[in-house]
Amino acid sequence: MSHGFFIWASYAVTFAALALEIVFLFRRSRRAGPSRQIK
Amino acid sequence: MNPNSTLRWFWFASPQTFFPLAGTIARWCAAAAALLALGGLYVGLVVAPTDAQQGEVYRIIFIHVPAAWMSMFIYVVMAGWAAMGLAFNTRLSFMMAQALAPTGALFTFIALWTGSLWGRPTWGTYWVWDARLTSELILLFLYLGFMALHAAIDDPRRADRASALLAIVGAVNVPIIYYSVQWWNTLHQGASVSITRAPSMAATMLTGMLLMALAFWAYSIAAVLVRVRCIIRERE
Amino acid sequence: MLAVARTLVHRDLLLALRRRSDVGTALLFFVIVASLFPLGVGAEPNLLRAISPGVIWVAALLSSMLSLGRLFAADHADGTLEQMLLGAAPLGVVAMAKCLAHWLVSGLPLVAIAPLIALQYDLAPGLYGVLALSLLLGTPVLSLIGAIGAALTLGLRGGGVLLALLVLPLYVPVLILGAGAVEMAGAGLQPDGQLLLLGALLVLAAAFSPWAIAAALRISME
Asked: pTM of the predicted model, to two decimals?
């Protein structure tokens, strides 16, 4: 386990987690219906 | 305060009027987040020098510390919206608190994950009962409790208000928890250097951390506003 | 106001006396949990002596948490709680009275039983006093903070476990200070700092939780 592994694992999981959040947000957005004008 | 200015304060308290504003702000913040992250990563991974004691591994700090800052900052903001909701009885305030929780929990997880991976090469174990990591763990429990309470109550109004009160009670307790954990840590680990403190802060290291912190901040605003738009659509 | 409080405490104590088994099981739980640890970590006396303050305190936390469900459930079920909400007495006073009764029945006995557990763990006899004092100061705080959680989770399905998830993080400072006091004394140092801080937590909790409990009850009952 070189030190490089830990750095890569940290950054990779961080950005993967953030990307997952974005993906979930967009799926939720699509499920909530298109962005029509709210009454 | 004349009636006109009072109306102006509450103009954006209506979900309908807030909705398009949230969209605009979210777009700008998303762009800002991307740029700031690129800058921060460049400074952190390319410009900042190798540390004398920890070598390259210290570079985890550019994610760990900003994530920890965001996790605590978001909790305070969440409690603030919760207090506002209970005080003024505005639906949108409760929606904002709900929207902030998942992002806050995510940053808490990131802080714990990166802290753990930083601890392995520097201290030999994946989990160190360091003051900051332990406090972050308890903060994660507070976030999860907030979300769990809201999910457990069917009536939306009761759910909003109950979780809001919980958030405020939690916020009042966070400093007490933090200081008691600090004290507990010094008692059990002696005066050893905390793994989460990078020894000498070169100016470039500080810049990198600041840039990443701003990037996370912009990202949080964007993510939370997108989520609150979803919540508005789901409820209205 | 004091008369109301006294009546309420009296009433709750009377009710608890009639349901002695409920009270007894929580205390029995305290003893059982404390007995589990040696079975898990081995009976080596030095190890047990070292972990005993922490184990006793964790057992106290868990036992206190289990008994919280009883705090408002019975009154909520038969409508008495609604009467209290509509009544003339300030809800904060009602909350305080119920917490006091709860502590007298679920917390104070722990202070009495703890030395027996300490005996099992071969804790130095000189530390019994600090242990009892730390529990005496800490268990009321557990009742007060726990009552907020109990009020928030009133009537919810899966309430007991959810209550635990909500309340345990808030219990952490009490645990750290309480167990820490005994460990300090065990190391030959003065536990005054921890005990004074525990006292401060008690004062803070007594001052602010009745307000929070009352707010939580209103939120849960409207």
From this structure: 0.90
